[in-house]
């Protein structure tokens, strides 16, 4: 039996101008593209301010998951990309504000640049569409 992939997006969709889908639901999973510090109109938020950019990226992730009928509590895997690993403790702190146990699996990587030169953080994730994430 084939599984369809259904596009998920907010309205407005700030990624449309870049020819990128914000997310897809495929079966029981939501696959979310990297979310960065862009508002819904595509404007960069918090230029030069890691904390503001991280907050916006996590808010965007939350908004896309909500549009999919899912939520932050259903995340099972995230990849976080930062342009400076000196912000590691800030990432840990923001994870504590947006995630709760059982924590999603996480990869945190420093990269030399993101899609736009002003961006300092990007987060992508995989979440359950339904059901719940259970600890061991």
Quick recap:
By secondary structure, the chain is of the alpha+beta class. 21% of the residues lie in helices and 27% in strands. Strands 1-2-3-6-4-5 form a 6-stranded mixed β-sheet, with helices on one face.
Mind explaining what this structure looks like?
The protein is of the alpha+beta class and 136 residues long. It has one domain: RutC-like (60s Ribosomal Protein L30, Chain: A). Helices cover 21% and strands 27% of the residues. It is built from two helices and six strands. Strands 1-2-3-6-4-5 form a six-stranded mixed β-sheet, covered by helices on one side. Helix 1 (50-67) runs parallel beside helix 2. The N and C termini lie far apart (31 Å).
Give the topology, please.
Elements: E1 5-8, E2 23-26, E3 29-35, H1 50-67, E4 75-82, H2 88-98, E5 105-110, E6 121-128
Low-confidence stretches: none
Quantity of strands, as a count? 6
Fraction of residues in H or I helices? 10-25%
What's the rounded overall pLDDT mean? Answer: 96
According to CATH, the homologous superfamily is RutC-like
Given the structure, what is the number of helices?
Answer: 2
Structural class: alpha+beta
Compute the CA-based radius of gyration. Answer: 14 Å
Biggest beta sheet summary: 6 strands, mixed
Oligomer: single chain
- Please report the first level of CATH classification, the CATH class: Alpha Beta
Global morphology: globular
